[in-house]
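Page 47, continued from p. 46.
Same chain as before, 206 aa.
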Amino acid sequence: MSLIFYTNPMSRGRIVRRMLEEVGAQYETRVLEYGPAMKTPEFLALNPMGKIPVLCHDGVTICETPAILAHLADAFPQAQLAPPPGSPLRGAYYRWLFFGAGPIEAAMTNKSLGVEIPPEKTGFVGYGSLDLLLDVLEKALSATPYLTGDTFTAADLYVGGLLGFAIQFGLFESRPAFKDYTARINTRPAAARAQALDDALMPKTA
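Result:
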């Protein structure tokens, strides 16, 4: 089996690294600097968007963080990071993966760019308003330990990773339910391993 992971420690590649550690796979890491390194013909042949993370698995190239997570969850079923096909929990699992990829990512981007959605235009925006998005997340994370119930999945890894970033950089307010949730998912051994590996790749400060 060949797994090649293209990343940068200051990116959503941290989320994919965490997933690779969760499934227990052996993989090769290739760190790309921002700028020309991500625009070479060789890398653009893997991802024409010229961005990381990218995963190459036995010759198959997967781009976009949630797609990589879903692929790994299915490729390594023994890690039990996705409800099995046919499970009634599969719907909730997909819902939250795509909630992360759609509403959460869009809200984070707009907040970071200072984009304000006028109240009369919220129907045009996938997440409605930031307050609505946070209320929906808070209700879900207060109801059960994890997004699909009592079991941690790749959906938690993705949503939890985004939520952690958003709170860390002041994009989302930190509510008690969010603190409890991110603390819960970050106690897993894979989280510490992944963080140590990525922290070791961070640029050294003078």
